[in-house]
Amino acid sequence: MDIRFSKMKIPKYRLVLLTVFMAALMFFLVRMRILPGTSQRNSWPKGFELVDVLMQLIRNDYLEERDPVQTAEGTYRGIVNSLDPVSSYLNSDLTARYAARGPNDTGTGLVVFKRYGSFPQVVGVVPGSPAEKEAVKVGDLVSAIEHRGSLNMSLAEVELLLAGKDEKPVAIKLLHSNDGRELTLARARLFAKDYAFAPAAPGRPAVLAVHRFTPGLAAGIRKDVLPSLKALKGPLVLDLRNASGGDLEAAKALANFFLKADAVGSFVKKGGVKVTAACPAAAELAGLPVVVWVNTGTIGPAEFAAGVLQEVRKAKVVGLATVGAVALTDRFPLGDGSSVILVSGVFSLPSGRSLWGEGLTPDAAVAVDDQTDKAYLAMTLPLLPKT
After folding, report:
1. What does pTM read for this prediction?
2. What per-residue confidence (pLDDT) applies to 348?
3. Residue of 21, 85, 121, 323 with fewest CB within 10 Å of its CB?
4. Span 187-199, pLDDT tens digits
5. 101-185 and 195-382 in the same fold
6. What is the pLDDT, as a whole number, of residue 15?
7. In this structure, are strands 316-319 and 364-365 parallel, antiparallel, or unpaired?
């Protein structure tokens, strides 16, 4: 099963939707007599002027009267959401949800990724979560959330709708090999802490699993885990599987435990301006051998930490290729309570390798259809130093 987006076969519904959209656009253009061969060839609207023309046509000439707010919102979504997988238009309700996010939020256990014009794809399932109990599989497509089609949603909107403040279930519709399945997923507290530490055991190295990149991650690890890590006699596995989203500064702080460097890469901003990313503090675990585990649910800050450790620390990475979503974002409030999230910089490693769009390539790949700890250990043990 190949879950890389570049290799996904285009479903029939996408072709139908594209045909309908093109037919509607042709209708609007013919109505305005702005197609080639018409008398108004020199006054064709261009760029955002065409958006204004289409809005006027819908208001004045469409069969039914439409809510202008909803029509405009659809336009805003299309403009912003089509920029890249991370940029997003959030209406006032979603903006309020975004501002209210917190470490005690509940979730379904689905880790999703989405590109514009495609359904959100399940790229990870948290072990023990409601999603795993309902046998949701990596590669499934989420075609609807709470009876709303997800095709035109942004990744941020999908994640906000799947999360919650309580255990109220969420209705979703899944597509798997062209078969649809409707189910109600419970929401639950997925993790007691942002991290979990398992000491070494016979045939297994110590494992530090990072679940979420929150601002307090490094402080929590320093207090609860760092003494045990300093006392380790053997190597450490840093498990970043299904760690999706979060805070980039937390990712820098995590990497800084293992390495000290004035430059671990740079964020390229508008106009080619480069902002250097650094891990300047003393690396308290600089001598500890470490192997990093990743999968397709390793997204954003987790990709940053894994990529920096792989290239700068020369740590080995085991697992699956990641999607490539390491970016700086800015959120801009709008006057009506809505907001937009825009990518303002994308990350490249010192070698010039981009972690935006390209993602990470593991040093040792694990089979897509066998993502068990046993499979990861089998690929990891040969990479560990002999003691």
Report:
1. 0.84
2. 96
3. 21
4. 999 999 999 999 9
5. no
6. 45
7. parallel
